[in-house]
Amino acid sequence: MMTARSSSLITFGKLLIALLLGLPVVLLLLTLQLTPSVPASRSIDDVDIRAIEQLIVDNAPKQISSTDQRRLQLNREEMNLLAAFALQTIPGLQDLSAAVTLGEGSASIDLVLPWRTPIMSFYTNLHARIRQQDGALELYDVRAGHLPVPTALVHGAIRTAESILIANYVNYQEFSTLQQRVSDVVFETETVAITLDWQPDMMTQVQAQAEQLLLSAEQKDRILRYYMQIAEIVTALPPDTKSISLNDLLFPLFRIASVRAANDRDAITENRNLLQALSLYVNEADIRVLEGTTSVIGATPVRRVEVTLQRRSDLAQHLTTSAAITASAGAGIAGILSNSKETYDARYRSGFSFSDLTANSAGVALGNAATSNVADALALQQKLANAVQESDYMPPVSRDLVGLSETDFSQQYQDRNSQAYLAKVAAINLEIASLPIYSGIQ
Q1: Do 207 and 79 form a contact (C-beta atoms < 8 A)?
Q2: Most buried of the four, 38, 116, 246, 298, by CB within 10 Å?
Q3: pTM of the entire predicted model
């Protein structure tokens, strides 16, 4: 016979179980709200893109090949522009919105995650503050909706995420090293001042990270297989061969990719890793940037020959770099890096070159067609496997080995938002889109 005491214990046990089971639901409800804490991020347009490019140029050192310490000043509008660009560019984050508020000694970050149902939408409004503490940036005062998140839990989640990245991506350590170039961050009411330890290899590192963003061990091995295919092609060339057309690598590599895709390989992944390997070779990058490659490449160095496009090695480098970055990090990143370089060249180096810009744009078109969707990826493989000439994928350009200086560019085009400049760029993009390789698959 059940006593009153045992009955009470059973009732208490049921209540405890119900509480434990219901706690995650209660916590979830506390993080959900009916309205977003910040409005949806505005779409980044071409004017915004050019503003970001100019921001890069204005903060770059005059001599990128020398050691320097740069102090960058960014205001609230510029910080929010960069945040909106990141959310729009990084895959999977397009539905999120964010806002940055600067203050004395810290900055506030609000991030909105929408949850849409057939009935109504809910929002998880994340709020955090960031400051520099003991030489590193620290998140604190973190909230998810109405629910405060313990700082210890935040730090634990960050450590766990970093461990996952280290375990799954072979080049994460290089990315982390690049982050460490930021030596000081000072938050003020109107601006944030960032001290950057500039090293001669910094642009090379940025390009490598953009070309091989979050590279898994499997992807690394696939890149190396394509690199070894390149090694076989150049080894078979006559001994006195000093240079070859990009065709001599691009077309046979895509024939190989086409065969692999026909054998149930993922066409997009094959195309991406092919373009990454091609850029490594054409730009004469040290293959050892891919960790642990010595056993794959072997002790014998890969034969080096100059790779040209319209008899110019720089055009081949521009096209393959932009194609690899587009395939890895997206067209937005590729466009910003390549166009800011042209603007930088106009100010400090050989001048603004529309020939280089054309090669960059053709590379973006190639990377897009190679990785945007499976149908286009397969179509591109077939087209390049059967292509015969450079003009199939790159329009002829003038041999403007010396470009426009910043002064000459301003006199002729005013700035990069002028109708004259935009018409010139539109004509280049239209010409590229009409080429046999890209026609019908973009």
Answers
A1: no
A2: 246
A3: 0.85
